[in-house]
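Record format v2
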Amino acid sequence: MIDLSHLTEEEQGKIMTVLRRDAELKKAEEERIRKLEKILHSDPQTDTNLKYMTGEWFYEAKSLRHQDKIHGSEIILASMKQGKAVGLDGSLRLDRSKALSSRGSDLVPPMKPARCREGLQPQEINDAEKENRISAFRSPRTPRHNPFNRPSLSIFEPPENNHDLSIIQDKESPETEPICPLKNPPAGETSQTSGGSVTSEGSSVGFRPVPKKRTFLSRRNQTESNGLGSDAQVGSAGIVPAPRSNLQRGSSGSSNQSCLKSQEEVPQKSAVTVSNQESQSAEEDSLQPPCDVPQVFPNSSMERERKPPSITRDRPYVRTDESTEKLQKREEQDDQTQRHNAALNLVAQNTNKIQDKESNRHVGTAMRQEEPSLPQSTVGENDDDQNPVRKALWRAETRPKNLAKSMEDITASLSPRQERRQDPTPDLRRVSDASTIPSPSSSLYSDPDHLKKMSKSVPSFLQKEDAGGDADSIYKDSYQRRRLTMGSSMTNLTSSSGLASVSYVKSYLVPDKANLGKRKTSVKKKTLNPTFNEILRYRVRMEYLRTQTLILSVWHHDTFGRNSFLGEVDVELSKWDFDHTQMNYLALKARATPTVAPSNGRGEMRLAIRFLPQIIHSEGIAKDGPNTGEIHIWVKECKNLPLIRATIDPYVKCFVLPDTSRKSRQKTRVLRRTVDPVFNHTMVYDGITEADLNEACVELTVWDRDRLASNLLGGLRLGAGTGRSYGAPVDWMDSSPYEVALWERMMASPTEWVEDVLPLRMLNSAKTAFK
Amino acid sequence: MSDGEYDYLIKFLALGDSGVGKTSFLYQYTDGKFNSKFITTVGIDFREKRVVYKSTSPDGSSARGQKIHMQLWDTAGQERFRSLTTAFFRDAMGFILLFDLTNEQSFLNIRNWMSQLQIHAYCENPDVVLCGNKCDLADQRAVSEDEARELAEKYGIPYFETSAANGQNVSHAVDVLLDLIMKRMERCVDKSWIPDRTVRANGPMDPDTSEGADRGKCAC
């Protein structure tokens, strides 16, 4: 077999088409030969002619050299099949290849030895393709069993899954039928709410009635959060749930866990972004030493696309899915750069975390983690003495040892919530005083150590607010960079909350191409005139800074995490006087709607979501009973989808991550030939508590249904964008500011629909490639 | 097209560096057209053509025109498809090896292609024709006719200066290759009728008694 995993889905598709044509031709030839033989059979004289005409002369010659009589096309076909099978579940690999090789030998017939079988017939190609699909469906089922096989989890498996069946029925395979019952989990529970899997396509055509429910797998109860964290990470590295089973059994699983445990703060992107950067493998290698396992294996999962399967990993990955990713990744180079920045940045954090025991630091200030990303970004200085320093900066920038340095010097004040956002402004229109979820961030604020660190930077800047230069000796000599800092105090917040305001300030840079991220101050309680006196640092070059707009927004911090917008001010840094180092008072303004989200050329989706919270019992904790919260997602329409083919047939798929099980998946129907499909399709997921809202993520992906495969057009993820889920870093908690904004609006206004038009982006996690 | 109404199915394969003009060559041969836009072949492709072949040697069975159905495999020159395309070498009866007259490297790589053929083809010395393509771009020529001919002679294969753009020598090259194949086939098959040899009707032919001259050529 040949390793064809480096080929993209599209390429494989094209090749399959060619192979099909070849098979047709072979079939016709076979026909012809049969007829010929009938006619010329018993005539010895014409045996010669027969030999000519049937091409036997050739096959005889060939057989002396190539022992097998397999055609090249068959080899390729088999390789492709095997490629798909292997990726899905390593345990199937042997079976597959056995099946294939036996298939191969079938092709060398016990037929007349003189005749070489004309290869795969078109039917067989269809079978091969069927098998591909089947294996895609089949393999995840059994292994997927395991990770959710925990008594504490409420596992729900529908007795039948119409989605799968509907697809499989297309291929006319009876094989999947017996598999379905296999999936009934031992936990056997709560088939509760998901009243079976009513085909969403059927039920919600046109309007939004009777949307299909999907039960969300609650993870709160499960004891090994790290285990699942690594699950999530594994999953996030682009795998159909299948490999989780490997996690269960493999030693690599435990090593993964232990490694993760040693660094709780492994940021979500490090795994996948490291793996995303095939071109950056050099840097990756240098950054990998800290913790090999969680970073390397996702890396290798990508590398497998290039390298032969000689890489031994306990978790084989879906090559086809990855190849899709690859295709997508190629299309969004700028995202990669961003992620690379993130990767360097976050891996640097990673290293440090091993040494640093503290966790859950909220970063209001310190900026060191930014440094590794800066070599890539244009860094600006905002101090007076720029020139001599700038040279040093340029030099420093290009030195790889920057990374090493920054890795050593990074302090504990890292934000687990580092995000790369392009435009920050979420929009919360009202304060909610609905029911409660404990905010993960509230703990940050109360962490005394953390507060100490925050205040550490304050003293020398007391009474001094500036967006400009500073004379911070701590930073200056080490890195010779300049930073944008600000302290702040605030007066007269509008008491929109009705109570005394609990507030904090967020800052973003817009458009934040260097992904410097947002910063937050601490929370000041119960005052309408909070004084923060904190510094929010960005390490930037001056010239870059001048292209940015700083957005400072003030938020009311709800104890239960539903923060509401109080006011904001945009600072056009191109017009800012950096020499002016006195305190400024900037009037806060209301913001009605977020600015139009930047388009990435992948079109946009109009959707509405709402959250129906569960009814809280008097004990304070809702049981997972019939009364769990629900998320409703109303996919209205998409516009300007990318035309990756002459015409596209789009549909939307939805998961509530981290649940990637088949039952969690909902799809709209496939619309034909349109880049502006109107789906008007609602999806309901239940079993969602408010705590889950901060850990879960609704992933919507838009696909183009091609006859052979589906192509990912783009997607979005609605979530808190924290980079973490259930205590572990994951790469799919990467919601953009707009996505986070919508999510927060949803949380802030339970039972009410919140709608937005969001740009579609290319999603890096191969969960989206799970067909 | 594949209606079974033909006498022979002959499979050829075009190979060579990326961009030398394999696809254009075959397109010119099958359709008589030329498209100057460069669209790299994804992995593999093939075209078909129906021709009539008249054997030049007086022979009872091939005096009439033979209907030949040609399947012309078009391989990608790009490195990344190499493993894929090589798998198809074994299926072809004859090879059209192309290089670009305006690109010296493509000519230098002919050596590599030949060794690939020798390894992967159905036998050690398959029928090949060497084509120096893009001869219409005279002012950009980087390979002289002499050195190309010299190389072709070294391998014992015919050489043609072709142009997919204006069609020069395209049909000719393929016809020559077809002729080679048909002749080889006849030789292969005809051997069984040599009286010294075990007559076919008595059982399978003994390979050890194959004629010395043809030993290397055809293994039948």
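Chain B has seven helices and six strands.
Residues 192-217 of chain B have pLDDT under 50 and may be disordered.
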